[in-house]
Amino acid sequence: MSTSAESYHHGDLRTALIGAGLSALEGPDGATLSLRGLARTVGVSATAVYRHFPDKRALLAALAGEGLRQLGESQAAAAQAAGGGAKGFAASGRAYVRFALAHPALFRLMFSQGNPADFETRENDLARDLLSEMTLELTGNPVAAERMAHQAWAIAHGIAMLMLDGRLPAEPALIDELLDTDALFFGSTPKAATTTDR
User: Fold this and answer.
1) CATH class of 61-196
2) Which of 98, 30, 96 shows the shortest CA–CA distance to 63?
3) 3 state DSSP class of 31
4) What b/e sequence results for 81-116 when a residue is b if at least 16 CB atoms lie within 10 Å of its CB, and e otherwise?
5) Would the pLDDT of 185 be above 90?
6) What's the average model confidence in pLDDT over 157-161?
7) Cα distance between residue 198 and residue 188, in whole Å
8) DSSP code of 168?
9) Most confidently modeled of 57-61, 123-127, 137-141?
10) Is residue 118 over pLDDT 90?
11) Can you spell out the DSSP letters for 91-102?
């Protein structure tokens, strides 16, 4: 049943549009995602949609922001379930790749809006914040933590893209193997890097 614009209050329409946009993005018509199409899906006028998103670019930016939020929550949950520390760090990296595989269109969109390469200045990025906190905890050294954060992101993102592009098989066991953070970063102890990075 169609819902009129008057039934949405206090930002509910914006939330509904983002939800519909995320669903459409992952569907067969994701490539042709449009504001008018979302208006029809949600059951409101195009004018109502334009009050929240003046153009398609604004909608895509909002969808990308929601994707970053969901990614961060997924990684935080994985890290917590693994008990935090080095095991949580590894789990968060695996969660990153699994999120990409579960939401390929959204994942690609997240890193095509704005300036995603500007790792240090993205706002409201739970995944980035979590990574920064974990690497600082593991190294005890801000310089080493920043370097590890960039390395970890590059590795997880690279694996995700290789799997999305069919260059690597998207197999759970391979994700675990490639994101063996003990072998990648720690050697015998998570804080080993702190003696040489000052």
Assistant:
1) mainly alpha
2) 30
3) helix
4) ebeeebebbbbbbbbbbbbbeebbbbbbbbbebeee
5) no
6) 97
7) 20
8) S
9) 137-141
10) no
11) HHHHHHHHHHHH
Q: Give the helix, strand, coil percentages of the chain, each rounded to 5.
A: 70, 0, 30
Considering the domain 1-53, what is its CATH architecture? Orthogonal Bundle (1.10)
| Mean pLDDT score of the chain | 85
Q: What is the CA radius of gyration of the chain?
A: 19
- Which position has the higher pLDDT, 102 or 113? 102
Boundaries of every domain in the chain: 1-53, 61-196
Tokens of 112: 């095509």
Structure tokens at 134: 């974990």
Q: Tell me if 38 sits within 8 A of 18, measured CB to CB.
A: no
Task: Determine the Cα–Cα distance for residues 25 and 102; give it in Å rounded to an integer.
Answer: 12
103 three-state secondary structure: coil
How far apart CA 156 and CA 74 sit, in angstroms, is: 14
Q: Please provide the size of the chain in residues.
A: 198
Q: Write down the residue that tokens 């960039």 correspond to.
A: 150
**Cα separation of 67 and 96, whole Å?**
12
